[in-house]
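Throughout our pipeline, every protein is held as a single compact record rather than as scattered files. The record that follows is passed on verbatim for readers who wish to inspect the format.
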Amino acid sequence: MAVSEHFINRVVGTLSHESPIRVQRLFDGAGLYIEDQFFGLVVDDQLYFHTTPATRDRYLKAGMEPFRPYGDDGKCLQFYRVPDQIVSCQQDLCDWMNYACDRVVEPA
């Protein structure tokens, strides 16, 4: 598991248009924070956002999988992969970030 500086810079550059983003390196990945809220995870140049039972449906409908740091048979975390088409669109990515941070009431 690794993450490139280019990918992190691209994601943070896009999300920073909405809010100041802090990056904290975690092993071979990086955590994304707004103030003290841990809302995103970057591993293997893939972006994952925090979900709750109420917010997870949009990821499942898009066919996205949870982050599984211990392999397919291990425990999954509450972070689900963000679809590539969302990562590629600034407005959509910011909307999904706000959703992951509980900044919107209804799904976009």
User: Anything to note?
Assistant: The longest strand covers residues 37-43.
